[in-house]
Amino acid sequence: MRVLGIDPGSRVTGVGIVASTGDRLTALHSETIRLGGGPLPDRLGAIHRRIAELVAEFEPDLVAVEQVFVSNNPRSALVLGQARGSAISAAVTSGCAVQEYSAREIKQAVVGTGGAGKEQVQHMVRVLLGLRAAPAQDAADALACAICHIHSAAVAGRLQRAATR
Q1: pLDDT digits over 91-126, tens only?
Q2: Sheet holding 62-66: strands in order across?
Q3: Beta strand segments in 35-129, E
Q4: In this predicted model, what pLDDT tens digit does every residue of 35-88 receive, in sequence order?
Q5: Per CATH, which fold does 2-163 belong to?
Q6: Which of 12, 18, 20, 104 has the most CB atoms at less than 10 Å from its CB?
Q7: 8 to each of 12, 65, 81, 83, 143, how far by Cα in Å?
Q8: 18 and 5 in contact (C-beta within 8 Å)?
Q9: By C-alpha distance, which of 64, 59, 4, 61 is closest to 31?
Q10: CA dihedral in degrees (100, 104, 108, 111; nearest 10)?
Q11: Residues catalogued as catalytic
Q12: Is the pLDDT of residue 29 over 70?
């Protein structure tokens, strides 16, 4: 299984691709898409283009996206939602299925607690993927999102097999 994880943001979007073979996880690619402070439509277009390029290059089986964190600032939540929408649109128009996970679900799957801090997520992503150094924060969050889906899919598969016995 190959999963493209996305940590959407209107100024910085993290992406990470993780392959799973049996119990082994391998990071194939990670990056932060730095969008700067230009006009929002240009930033949304850049997210869409880069996600489409990554889907074409790595041919993931699925795209896992972090859900919007509802903040006290409605404008920030709206802009973040548009960045997410741009990433999801790129994945779907490229032919990929999309699965969404909350930040709490991602942290639970990777660290073991839904209240984990950013540094804990970075550390566990480095350990789980056997990386020499921790990836940048947004890239680590995207890799964690991909790992979350791989773990969730494995559990779902085991439950389905047990139910058919």
Answers
A1: 999 999 999 999 999 999 999 878 888 899 999 999
A2: 24-34, 12-21, 2-7, 62-66, 97-101
A3: 62-66, 97-101
A4: 988 999 999 999 999 999 999 999 999 999 999 766 677 888 889 999 999 999
A5: Nucleotidyltransferase; domain 5 (3.30.420)
A6: 18
A7: 7, 8, 8, 6, 12
A8: yes
A9: 4
A10: 110
A11: 7, 66, 138
A12: yes
The answer to whether 55 and 90 are in contact (CB under 8 A) is yes
Q: Which of 120, 134, 112 is nearest to 14 (CA)?
A: 134
In contact, 91 and 51? CB cutoff 8 Å: yes
C-alpha pair distances (Å), 128 with each of 113, 124, 150: 15, 6, 12
Computed over its alpha carbons, how large is the radius of gyration of the chain?
Answer: 15
Give SS3 for 99.
strand
